[in-house]
Amino acid sequence: MQPTAQRATLREFFPYLRGHVRILVVVAVVSLISTGLSIAQPLMVQQLVNSVSASEPATIFIWLLVAITLGGAVFGAAQSYLLQRTAESVVLGVRRSLVGRLLALPIKEFDRRRVGDLISRVGSDTTLMRSVITSGLFEIVSSILMFFAAVVLMVLIDPLLFGITLSAVVVGAGGVLFLARLIRRRSRDVQDAVGSMTAAVERGLSGIRTIKASVAEEREAAVIDVEATKAFRAGIAMARLQAAVQPIMSICIQGAFIVVLAVGGIRVAAGELLLGDLIAFILYLFLLVMPIGSAMSAFVQIQSGLAALDRIQEIARLEPERADEAGLVQRSAEPMPAGTAARPGTIELRDVSFSYAPVDDDAAATGQGGATAVGARRSTPVSPEGALAALDDIDQPVLDGVSFSVPAGSRTALVGPSGAGKSTVLALLERFYEPTGGTIRLDGVALPDLPRSALRSRIGLVEQEAPVLSGTLADNLRLAAPEATDDQLRRVLAAVGLDALGDRSDDGLDLNLGEDGIRLSGGQRQRLAWARTILADRPLLLMDEPTSAVDSRTEQLLQRTLGEASRDRTVVVVAHRLSTVADFDQIVVLDQGRVAAVGTHEELLDSSELYRDMASRQRLVTV
Ligand SMILES: Nc1ncnc2c1ncn2[C@@H]1O[C@H](COP(=O)(O)OP(=O)(O)OP(=O)(O)O)[C@@H](O)[C@H]1O
């Protein structure tokens, strides 16, 4: 994968440090003291050695040396702890804002990206950013301080020896800076490859039953292995560069030590330099080398951190659904035009057209992909030819000039062949997507003029896949009605014939439904979706094939429940089984994205050939 054109800079990292300035100032002070103590150490050794050589009293220097060493250790530990703590807080802030941003993204962004890759941005990329603080920024700052202090003192002790040292450092630093650019590019490749691998693992694990049933474990493992191998190769390419940094520095530094020792030894023998001065110079050489080494590795860390920041910023730069709706928690508090929130509404579609956006290369570079896209994916059986034809037509309008009205308080069914665009109409009513043409109005107000959250708080949606979130029965029920009491939960479970579920174990409503509700049958999942929607008590009900997975007895119960619920609600149901909607106020027949006919069951049997054909295939009429 190619790195994108946008590259994060250190400046873009600084806003993440806002809110941590005070603690960072404390860290800076502690770090200054610790650096100062390290610099004072060789001076004490110089005084000690020169005093002993001149047979002068040296006890005071011994005590000072001990105090400086202990002090350095204590301040060093304090600096390290405070820095790690700050880094964790920064990572927490980044994760919070990233998760907030992810949940605020429009559905189309999830259609284009792979869930695993997004997970890896919240997990491993934010962890990499952490190292910019812990072993990055401060390491560089304190290294620079130590470096300059050592330089000044070395020049003061012996300018000639310093000249030798300087030439070695310049050669080494030049080599490392050259490598750093390459390291950043490689680091981005590594993170992208890890993202793709996580996405592949996520795909395999989320579809584990299908994979096992298809005896496709080995093939799926091979797919993951391809991604893992790419991550391995990217890691190796990065390791090769990182490995070159160390030897370049070692050669230059060891060379400098040998030459300084040789020249310094000759000058001490010739009486041009005191032994204590040579020892202090060599200790400063250590102090010079240490920060150069850590500054170089900090530089590498920063490059990796910035590559991770690139990937985080890619998500941060995406347009959220709407800025005023980023605070999803505020949902139920969103205002609606006065008096409209609680009563059923009139829906009107006028000349509505829509196409799903084709997948683009830009999204591909940021982890877009195929099989695990979140969003409007169907579970209805579609013939392989039909599905493939639909995918071939991905750029064709899915809805083309669709117009119909749903009177307030009425029951309307959307019927038609698979792929006709029925679920898409519901998705547009929820504003998961925006129409490419035409208008949709609710009570006369065009949907774009309503805050999305206010619109959605009026709608109860039973999705085709009836998704169940990991967690307990009560968690799932309270998703859209957080204030509901246990009694209300039990009543709504009874209304959909799920009362036995709450009594299934001692846990009652706290029954754990497992990952993605794996412990429920298909029909139970569907009924749970009903229960959740009825509990939320919204004036508009949108239901996508809401009885496709239940037996006929349960279907009758649900029809009764819907009959009661629709007394004071507007209901729109997508249905394949015409018998379930034959008594509805109106039925809209969709075919290839267009309205083929509108009417009651009886009217359509007379007027619509397509409807008559569907009814006869379902043995509702004989032709
Ligand atoms: N998220 C998506 N991205 C791209 N294309 C999509 C997406 N969701 C649906 N489509 C395409 O849009 C067309 C209409 O799909 P839709 O789900 O609205 O049909 P439907 O009438 O509800 O079908 P079914 O009865 O099988 O559920 C199909 O061709 C489908 O492939």
UniProtKB/TrEMBL annotation:
<dbReference type="GO" id="GO:0016887">
    <property type="term" value="F:ATP hydrolysis activity"/>
</dbReference>
<keyword id="KW-0547">Nucleotide-binding</keyword>
<feature type="transmembrane region" description="Helical">
    <location>
        <begin position="21"/>
        <end position="40"/>
    </location>
</feature>
<dbReference type="GO" id="GO:0005524">
    <property type="term" value="F:ATP binding"/>
</dbReference>
<feature type="transmembrane region" description="Helical">
    <location>
        <begin position="60"/>
        <end position="78"/>
    </location>
</feature>
<dbReference type="InterPro" id="IPR011527">
    <property type="entry name" value="ABC1_TM_dom"/>
</dbReference>
<feature type="transmembrane region" description="Helical">
    <location>
        <begin position="278"/>
        <end position="302"/>
    </location>
</feature>
<keyword id="KW-0812">Transmembrane</keyword>
<dbReference type="InterPro" id="IPR036640">
    <property type="entry name" value="ABC1_TM_sf"/>
</dbReference>
<protein>
    <submittedName>
        <fullName>ABC transporter ATP-binding protein</fullName>
    </submittedName>
</protein>
<feature type="domain" description="ABC transporter">
    <location>
        <begin position="382"/>
        <end position="617"/>
    </location>
</feature>
<dbReference type="Pfam" id="PF00005">
    <property type="entry name" value="ABC_tran"/>
</dbReference>
<dbReference type="InterPro" id="IPR017871">
    <property type="entry name" value="ABC_transporter-like_CS"/>
</dbReference>
<dbReference type="GO" id="GO:0015421">
    <property type="term" value="F:ABC-type oligopeptide transporter activity"/>
</dbReference>
<feature type="transmembrane region" description="Helical">
    <location>
        <begin position="248"/>
        <end position="266"/>
    </location>
</feature>
<dbReference type="InterPro" id="IPR003439">
    <property type="entry name" value="ABC_transporter-like_ATP-bd"/>
</dbReference>
<feature type="domain" description="ABC transmembrane type-1">
    <location>
        <begin position="25"/>
        <end position="304"/>
    </location>
</feature>
<dbReference type="InterPro" id="IPR003593">
    <property type="entry name" value="AAA+_ATPase"/>
</dbReference>
<keyword id="KW-0472">Membrane</keyword>
<dbReference type="Pfam" id="PF00664">
    <property type="entry name" value="ABC_membrane"/>
</dbReference>
<dbReference type="InterPro" id="IPR039421">
    <property type="entry name" value="Type_1_exporter"/>
</dbReference>
<feature type="transmembrane region" description="Helical">
    <location>
        <begin position="137"/>
        <end position="157"/>
    </location>
</feature>
<keyword id="KW-0067">ATP-binding</keyword>
<dbReference type="InterPro" id="IPR027417">
    <property type="entry name" value="P-loop_NTPase"/>
</dbReference>
<dbReference type="GO" id="GO:0005886">
    <property type="term" value="C:plasma membrane"/>
</dbReference>
<keyword id="KW-1133">Transmembrane helix</keyword>
<feature type="transmembrane region" description="Helical">
    <location>
        <begin position="163"/>
        <end position="183"/>
    </location>
</feature>
